């Protein structure tokens, strides 16, 4: 007997096969999209940081009778990033201003120094190693970027400053099996020139360096090598920054001296090591040593050094304490400086001085403090009251690292003052942070002297206080 085909069963099989085909196709599409999503990712974050500051001697001493300053500054950032197959790009648009500034009038009547809108970061990173490579990372990162290493003593983002710090540079990056090796370079020009490469680094809108050196490097080259060992972290840094040569020309009646940039550069070399190790389970030591040679920005020969060591001892579960000392060499204030004399003042490059030498920013920040260097011995206390609440107290004793002149052939007391910094941090959420600080200094007459801050009739009890709200949303985060 012949077999008869059931039409109902045939139709059912056709529908079933069609559903399977659609399911397979849908699964294939989802697999492709999932694979693409894994390889390409878009990020969109931001930051709004308001800081109310009361300054009654912040940065430098006030004169007796001066009124305290009170203002609110704001940083606003929009960060957009995109990562794909063997590449990544990132941009950070930033606006920084004081409440009450009106951009529509400022930008029409004054210099670019008051234009708060700028491109803080804009870089691309290309990965030279494929996904199947045994090397963890081999890439080139080019564009405007933050450059930060170790504890940020000599190279850091300077995040405390509302505008922060950035560099236009290219960096070759390598990482594998605990090793990190970066080689970077930068070359600055004021504009698209048709001839020559003379660079005017005295841009009033963005000062580079520390201790108010007042000029931007023309170029730099550096190499950084770091390794994680069983005992902790160890790294080596070589950094050479170049400053455009100049001559001083005096002309006219009355005579006026002006700086005229010429060809060539003066090169400054900084070489050193950094370590971070746990001596015991509860005792940590962090230290560094750097030597500075070559020529400074004015062409004088350099012979300077920095030495730093900090200890942190955990006492109980929540309390951390520890002493430390920083030494940054300087010039003998009683000796006459000539064009042929050595410059012994160490400049901690492009680091984050606010983090180390007092919250009042008296040293190695925008305001200069003479050329005699700094000896800072300090004691730090931190108490983590809760997971989202911490208190910190830093006590600094500041002293000149070299002899201070009284201007009349004699010497001044080398002790400059004692500073107390109190800090409170509270994380309302993972996105919203509130921070408050208060600083008080008991300064000496040596701090007010012409050799250091040069303030007549100075108030030797400066104070500084602030409250800061920091919100860092992720606009693409799932609720």
Automatic annotation (TrEMBL):
It comes from the Bacteria. Residues 43-448 form the Alginate export domain. Pfam families: Alginate_exp. This is Alginate export.
């Amino acid at each position: 007997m012949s077999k008869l085909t059931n039409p109902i069963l045939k139709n059912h099989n056709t529908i079933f096969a069609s559903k399977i085909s659609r399911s397979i196709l849908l699964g294939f599409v989802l697999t492709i999209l999932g694979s693409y999503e894994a390889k390409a990712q878009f990020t969109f974050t931001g930051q709004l940081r308001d800081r109310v500051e009361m300054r009654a001697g912040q940065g430098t001493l006030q004169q007796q009778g001066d009124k305290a300053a009170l203002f609110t500054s704001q940083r606003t950032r929009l960060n957009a990033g995109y990562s794909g197959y063997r590449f990544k790009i990132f941009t950070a648009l930033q606006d920084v201003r004081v409440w009450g500034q009106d951009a529509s009038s400022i930008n029409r009547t004054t210099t670019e120094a008051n234009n708060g809108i700028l491109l803080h970061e804009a870089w691309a990173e290309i990965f030279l190693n494929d996904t199947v490579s045994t090397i963890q990372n081999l890439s080139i990162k080019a564009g405007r970027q933050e450059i930060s290493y170790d504890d940020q003593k000599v190279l850091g983002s300077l995040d405390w400053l509302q505008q922060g710090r950035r560099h236009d540079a290219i960096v070759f990056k390598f990482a594998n099996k605990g090793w990190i090796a970066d080689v970077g370079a930068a070359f600055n020009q004021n504009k698209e020139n048709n001839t020559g490469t003379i660079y005017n680094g005295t841009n009033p809108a963005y000062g580079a360096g520390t201790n108010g050196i007042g000029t931007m490097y023309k170029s730099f080259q550096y190499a950084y090598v770091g390794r994680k060992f069983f005992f902790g972290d160890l790294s080596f840094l070589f950094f050479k920054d170049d400053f455009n040569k100049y001559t001083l020309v005096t002309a006219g009646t009355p005579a006026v001296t002006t700086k005229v940039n010429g060809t060539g550069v003066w090169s400054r070399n900084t070489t050193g090591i950094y370590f971070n190790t746990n001596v015991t389970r509860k005792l940590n030591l962090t230290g560094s040593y750097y030597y500075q040679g070559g020529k400074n920005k004015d062409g004088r020969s350099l012979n300077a050094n920095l030495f730093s060591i900090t200890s942190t001892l955990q006492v109980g579960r929540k309390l951390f304490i520890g002493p430390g000392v920083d030494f940054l060499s300087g010039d003998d204030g009683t000796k006459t400086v000539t064009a042929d004399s050595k410059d012994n003042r160490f400049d901690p490059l492009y680091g984050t001085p606010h983090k180390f030498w007092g919250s009042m920013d008296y040293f190695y920040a925008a305001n200069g403090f003479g050329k005699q260097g700094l000896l800072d011995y300090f004691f730090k206390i931190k108490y983590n009251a809760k997971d989202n609440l911490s208190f910190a107290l830093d006590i600094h004793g500041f002293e000149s690292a070299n002899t201070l002149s009284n201007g009349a052939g004699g010497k001044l007391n080398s002790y400059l003052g004692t500073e107390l910094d109190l800090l409170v941090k509270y994380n309302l959420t993972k996105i919203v942070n509130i921070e408050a600080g208060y600083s008080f200094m008991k300064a000496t007459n040596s701090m007010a002297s012409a050799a250091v801050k040069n303030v007549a009739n100075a108030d030797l009890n400066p104070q500084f206080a602030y409250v800061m709200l920091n919100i860092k949303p992720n606009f693409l985060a799932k609720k």
